[in-house]
Amino acid sequence: MSILGNRVQRREDPKFLTTGGVYGDDLKIEGALWATFVRSTMAHARLTSLDVTEARNRPGVVAIYTGEDVDLPPVPAGLPGVPDVMARPVLAKGVVRFVGEAVAVVLTEERYQGEDAAESVFVDYEPLPAVVDPVSALTGDVLLFPEHGSNVAVPMNEPQAEDFFDGCEVVVRHRLINQRVAPCPLEVRSGAAMWEGDRVIQYASNQAPHGAKAAIAGLYGLEADRVRVIAPDVGGGFGAKIGLYVEDLILPWLAKAAGRPVHWTETRSESMLALGHGRAQVQDVAIGGSRDGKVEAYRLEVVQDAGAYPSLGSFLPALTRLMTSGTYDIPKVEFSAASMVTNTTPTVAYRGAGRPEATAAIERAMDLFAAEIGMDPAEVRKRNVVANDKFPFTTPTGTVYDIGDYGGAIDLALQASDYQALRAEQATRRSSGDTTQIGIGVSSYVEITNGAGPPGEYAKVEILPGGKARVYTGTSPHGQGHETAWTMLASEQLGIPMEDIEFVANDTDLVPEGGGTMGSRSLQSGGLAVHEASIALVDKAAKLAAELLEANADDVVLDKVGGRFHVAGTPAVGRSWAELAEAAGDDGDALVVAHSSSPAGPTFPFGAHVAVVEVDTDTGRVKLTRLVAVDDAGTIVNPLLAEGQRHGGLAQGAAQALMEEVRYDDDGNPVTSNLADYAMISATELPSFELVAMATPTPINALGAKGIGESGTIGSTPAVQSAVVDALAHLGVRHIDMPATPERVWRAVAAAQSTAAE
Amino acid sequence: MIPAAFEYQRPSSLDEAVRLLADSGDDAKLLAGGHSLLPLMKLRLAAPSMLIDIGRLRDLSYISDAGDTVTIGALTRHHEVETSALLKAQVPLLAHATSQVGDPQVRHRGTIGGSIAHGDPASDLPAVCLALRATFTVVGPNGSRQIPADDFFRGFLETALSADEILTEISVPKVPDAGWSFQKFNRRAQDWAIVGVAAVHNGSTGVGLVNMASVPVRAAAVEDAIAAGSSAAEAATHASDGLDPPADLNASQEYRRHLAEVLVRRALQEAGAP
């Protein structure tokens, strides 16, 4: 009986749920100093002076460094098209460009002394005008990098056909705000650096240790083997911990300068300012089609807010572009974008990274189109989805979808939610004039997983003396449950119980290469590599067993129940893994297989969500009452893990629709810089999710698996947003920007009522 | 997230606490449950030079039947208030409203006296005490005095407490048969109210408002309108009369005024006003 497909409990949880986890802040590092950063309080200003005299005399202060002291080069975005001049200095030099930018760093014996000392560093600023939103940045009235001549970090223009919408009976246009959000991992950033001879050992709360190793080696001009990066237990990343930040990158310099290890943990308030933000797109959609519901042309124009120094955020429109037309077979599609620098926190990848933005735009556009022609939004979607016989399907923006049943997913979601009954209930409430109206939102989505960077991943599987096994992976688990899933995959092939399989990840000395964990890539790349390496290891062991049994290797089989090799038909005589390990040791032909997977390409999970909300038309309060999710990630290795990914994704997706927004005032001062002001969602604001199973295996990899890490976020945001609008559709409301705060909803109701009264 | 340096004292009696407070100057702060003060200190928005921790003065933790009133020691934790059988029977508005404060962790640490003495207009309990016409007992070097809730809240986070006085007791009239309502409008369960309304209707009517001014306030115009025979809906139109509500991340002034009217109407109706 296969272990795969079973709800195997997460073996990492006892550690995480008790006190066994060792996060960056928990590291006990002998002799370490603590680093505390002094951060800009101005969004845009010239740094005229930094007075560290008083701070130097505070208790415990060992050293204070400013941008003038640190001789590291600026950190480039490392992305195609981003001008070099926009590279970020490790500590600000001359100019600060966002509130929270590090301007100096204090080293102290104890951590608390750093906060006291940092407070007594006096910084003189000469304020410059700030540009806070990316559309204003287009005018170039305020330039962040005057030598570049504009605020455009990445242009991405495609010619706009004059006759694009010719022949469309209906064309609807709207500007949509896909607001800036904060990833808010439970664990803030933390790390440490120390030198062992000419070698740097760096700890980082990070999703891609091998990428981090390359970044450190590059910045410091070191050979790769002189850098070791360890990601200890990492308490969530959501994309925001893919890359290292300047605060991480300066640690080896500080450790060298001080001659002692340096340890650093940011505060939550710092994290809200200096960990990258996500989303932050202004989208102009235009959709055209016929009155019988066929969409013929769709155009999406994006202005991406990259923040003060272009990072992964400036690259998001490239991912948005891939998914422009969503699940729909639209003959004509146009996309254009510009990524702009602004005096705000740099943006990065955040759960979905460019694809939720694409889905939000096309799904809102479909709703606007449906409303315009007076057709049920679910029906309009079904009339336009890519037909099942068209896969692999190439979209007008050149993306090749592997396999799908988009209409089937919508039907499942409608059935599971009892859509017709919901509409009937809605009609009753509308006719009674109830102040609690209900709204129903339907989304259809497809996304790309394992779509950025090389699709393959490294794994090594080895048999230990005594017959146990050890699995090494280049993925970088930080909550996903790779330890459970990868040992399941190995156990399935090796016939060795999971509890006898050790798991190694997140240390570049122990795992020679790796791509890390992001973009919902891990199972289909790293899990696949473990699967394939395990099969190869069984082949290798079978050959060894054949020699020992004096049999033909082709005749030797592995009895997976007992973990024993024998000649087919004669199970009484065999060799266990332990015996083979011993024999192999004698041989010098160790039972170990290192292998990099090479899946044929990315995969395209899809699904459909139905959200139901209650809206109090007197106050604007929205209550999310149901969230029905059909998420098709192909073959599921462990439903418990997959459902956990969906739960978290649904929560974060609903949060964007209803709650969360990073806001700045007109001068670029952040006004949502703690978790009291930033409305991170909690369980009490969410219903119990209704998950519907659907599995269409992908032909792209041997597991049939697609990514599941981001689906929940991608499908739920537009469904929930649409539900809020739908609750008020009878009043004439067509759109409400996210987040649908009570005041925003109340204003939409009031505006509709005053229009109706005229 | 680490407070600035401060001195710390932990008196073992009320007398000792009063003496310490008198000796410590204006910059000392009393520490009870710490759920208002400590977050401010961690953000360095407050930096008292001295903390006088009165958390171990167990004598100040009680809920007692005092005839026409229930008296509550200032150090009684929210959890004890919300679960008190006496309060649920005699002052159900207070027990219920307390169950809406913060989250379970806050309610197991935070105290009723701390919440009142902090005087935050966004806190629930000051408005409830205003609606109930509670009376506060404070103790200082010159003995104790009683302050009606109406005279207690003076300005933003400012109360009638002198720098050398300690709030020791909250006395609330029993209203076992009164209609009552607590309307808390917030985005997340653990958030402060954007607007809140505490109402009690018992022949006479008391209405307290959360987050509708720089201090906890009574909706006096609403109470007067009800007394003059207005309906709940009519009276509610006076919800923000004479008030200058704050504008912040969650609500403009205009929206707060609107919410106050809706919530006062709902509160009055739930409390049984005509």
Question: Secondary-structure blueprint of this entry?
Answer:
The complex is a heterodimer of chains A (758) and B (274).
Chain A: H1 13-17, E1 33-39, E2 45-51, H2 53-56, E3 61-66, E4 95-96, E5 102-108, H3 111-119, E6 122-127, H4 134-137, E7 152-156, E8 170-181, E9 190-196, E10 199-204, H5 209-220, E11 227-230, H6 246-249, H7 251-258, E12 262-265, H8 268-274, E13 278-289, E14 295-307, H9 316-322, E15 332-341, H10 355-373, H11 377-384, E16 393-394, E17 400-401, H12 406-417, H13 419-432, E18 436-446, E19 458-463, E20 469-473, H14 482-494, E21 501-504, H15 522-549, E22 556-559, E23 564-567, E24 570-576, H16 577-587, E25 592-596, E26 606-616, E27 622-632, H17 639-658, E28 690-694, H18 711-727, H19 742-757
Parallel strand pairs in A: 1-12, 10-11, 14-15, 20-21, 27-28
Antiparallel strand pairs in A: 1-5, 2-4, 2-6, 3-5, 7-15, 8-13, 9-10, 9-12, 13-14, 16-17, 18-26, 19-20, 19-25, 22-23, 23-24, 26-27
Helix pairs in contact in A: 9-10, 10-18, 14-15, 17-18
Chain B: E1 7-9, H1 14-24, E2 28-31, H2 37-42, E3 50-53, E4 63-66, E5 69-73, H3 78-82, H4 85-90, H5 92-99, H6 104-109, H7 112-118, H8 124-132, E6 135-140, E7 143-148, E8 153-155, E9 158-159, E10 166-173, E11 179-185, E12 195-202, E13 204-210, E14 217-218, H9 220-227, H10 232-236, H11 253-271
Parallel strand pairs in B: 1-3, 2-3
Antiparallel strand pairs in B: 4-5, 5-10, 6-7, 6-10, 8-9, 11-12, 12-13, 13-14
Helix pairs in contact in B: 5-8
